[in-house]
Amino acid sequence: MTRQGTHMTIELNRRAGLAALASLAAAPVAAAAATQGKGSPLPPISIYHLEGRRSERVVWLMEELGFPYKLEFKRGDLMGSMALIKAFSPIVPMAPTVKYGDQVLVESGAIMELILNRHAPGKLQPDLGSADYPHYLMWMHYAEGSLAAKLFSDYRAWMQQPPKERSRLVDSEAVVEFAEEFLKAHEWFGGAAFSAADIMMLFPLRVATELNIVDAVQFPKVAAWKARVEARPAYQRMLAKARPDGMIGMLRALPQHAPSGPRSPGPTR
Ligand SMILES: N[C@@H](CCC(=O)N[C@@H](CS)C(=O)NCC(=O)O)C(=O)O
């Protein structure tokens, strides 16, 4: 790996990928491979990345699957990494941006669903017909649609005008509480087994407590789940490759919360 400031192109898991491609090449057509549960051959994938941000989800997924990918970012330089993204995809520069074959994709959840459904059938998702599947799919989408959206809007509102007491307008507790309640009855967001839903949920739940948007002590099940997912070898490999110097450029954490009053009745958007 080259050092800071230089444009990093990291070719990862290449050998594993070549072996997988070689074995898949024996299948007559991609569709036949998919029906045999092997998945279609993976096109070349480049992940445009910002350290510590949502693009880690795709890197982590690829590490869980042992799939090859290139990682594009400037180590220790978020602005430089964003400039790479803008040069590659100026219309909607965001992380992750993924080059999938010759297609340009954004939205971490959609990218993950595509990779799993097309190239890794049966992995990191519950069976479509199982009781776990509806929950799995709900958390896959809740992570961005309800949780991250509420957290970041509360964060901005709080930064703009710090509230003096818990308020219906700045109340991310409710959206995190929903996750806490679920984890009282389930070990993982996909139910019985670790899945891509856990990968989706880690970023917003990390942001929630690291930026002090909610009090970590109020959510012990979430804390225990975080420790479980962060201990996974694939997560650790992701950290080594995609966040080699730890967290950089972190947003300022919110000041200590206003004294707790009664919980307000949930999200109001
Ligand atoms: N819903 C998108 C959100 C992507 C997103 O907003 N990514 C952030 C980084 S975590 C970003 O690129 N922000 C643009 C910026 O910081 O300028 C996803 O899940 O991929």
Automatic annotation (TrEMBL):
<dbReference type="InterPro" id="IPR036282">
    <property type="entry name" value="Glutathione-S-Trfase_C_sf"/>
</dbReference>
<dbReference type="InterPro" id="IPR010987">
    <property type="entry name" value="Glutathione-S-Trfase_C-like"/>
</dbReference>
<comment type="similarity">
    <text>Belongs to the GST superfamily.</text>
</comment>
<dbReference type="Pfam" id="PF00043">
    <property type="entry name" value="GST_C"/>
</dbReference>
<protein>
    <recommendedName>
        <fullName>Glutathione S-transferase</fullName>
    </recommendedName>
</protein>
<dbReference type="InterPro" id="IPR001763">
    <property type="entry name" value="Rhodanese-like_dom"/>
</dbReference>
<dbReference type="Pfam" id="PF02798">
    <property type="entry name" value="GST_N"/>
</dbReference>
<keyword id="KW-0732">Signal</keyword>
<dbReference type="InterPro" id="IPR040079">
    <property type="entry name" value="Glutathione_S-Trfase"/>
</dbReference>
<dbReference type="InterPro" id="IPR036249">
    <property type="entry name" value="Thioredoxin-like_sf"/>
</dbReference>
<feature type="domain" description="GST C-terminal">
    <location>
        <begin position="129"/>
        <end position="248"/>
    </location>
</feature>
<dbReference type="InterPro" id="IPR004046">
    <property type="entry name" value="GST_C"/>
</dbReference>
<dbReference type="InterPro" id="IPR004045">
    <property type="entry name" value="Glutathione_S-Trfase_N"/>
</dbReference>
<feature type="signal peptide">
    <location>
        <begin position="1"/>
        <end position="32"/>
    </location>
</feature>
<feature type="domain" description="GST N-terminal">
    <location>
        <begin position="42"/>
        <end position="123"/>
    </location>
</feature>
<feature type="domain" description="Rhodanese">
    <location>
        <begin position="52"/>
        <end position="93"/>
    </location>
</feature>
